[in-house]
Amino acid sequence: MIKVLIIDDEPLATELVKEYLADFPLFEIQKVCHDGFEGLKAIQEHKPDLIFLDIQMPKLTGFELLELLDHPPAVIFTTAFDAFALKAFDAHAVDYLLKPFSKTRFAKALEKFLQLGNNSESINAFKNEAGVNQESASRVVLKVKNEIKIIPVQDIKYLEANDDYVNIYTKEGKFLKNKTLSFYEKTLEPSQFVRVHRSYLVNISEITKIEPYEKEGYLLKLKGGEGIPVSKSGLPKLKAVLGL
To answer: Do 101 and 54 fall into the same domain?
Structure first.
């Protein structure tokens, strides 16, 4: 038996998936969830083999939910999301169903799952690429111990590279996120966040002054008193954004 979760905030969509799945007795629905938080809890509880996942949902989006999973199950997206943003799906063997979808298309998605199974490497690659294909992120979602923390991007002072992770600094403190600094350089609004150094991405609204520092270098002073080095390659980017 293949354990299935349906995670979608649209009742008509969940009913359609349930109706179509009734003709495939190999698949057993464990639970139907109507938002990302409920879906995350259900995944941790039921450990499904496959999830049908919407993208735009309250509380947590489908992308954000996947980011919080260390070992995501196989995913078939059920979404009205723009097709252009879904091109990454095919490249990583993750299927998607554009609403409204037919029973024939649904059956093809199940067939693809049965052929491919849960390829976690492909799903993780998709997670990284899909995030970059979204419009500039408005928030960062991460796990802090056993709780979910949502940080609006305007609350971020700066980000610091930490190998394959990023340290995110806010007024509340430092948070660790399993993304690279390059990911956030591509994702965050470029007129607001500038890569001033290979290890630092800074929110320009936090800058109070630029000071000379060691030979030909410069140092940014932030509102909280932090000093951020500016590299030779980062200086032109910073000047361009600041209009200097």
So the answer is: yes
> Helix or strand or coil: residue 168?
strand
CA dihedral 87→159→189→186, nearest 10 degrees, is -30
Six token digits for residue 37 = 């938080």
**Angle at which helices 11-21 and 103-116 pack, to 10 degrees?**
70
**Domain end among 103, 133, 163:** 133
What's the chain's length in residues? 244
Regarding whether 109 and 68 lie in a shared domain, the answer is: yes
- The whole-angstrom separation of Cα 238 and Cα 244 is 8
- C-alpha closest to that of 140 among 164, 120, 170, 116: 170
For 205-226, write each residue's pLDDT tens digit: 999 999 988 776 889 999 999 9
The span from the first CA to the last CA of the chain, in angstroms, equals 63
Looking at the structure, tell me whether residues 18 and 121 fall in a common domain: yes
CB 21 within 8 A of CB 29: yes
CB atoms within 10 A of CB 95: 18
Query: Do 113 and 184 sit in the same domain of this protein?
Result: no
Its domain, for residue 33, covers: 2-133
3-class DSSP state for residue 51?
strand
CATH code at 161?
2.40.50.1020
Task: Specify whether 79 is located in the same domain as 171.
Answer: no
pLDDT tens-digit readout, 167-213: 999 999 999 998 889 989 988 999 999 999 999 999 999 999 999 88
CA–CA distance, 228 with 160 (Å, rounded to integer): 10
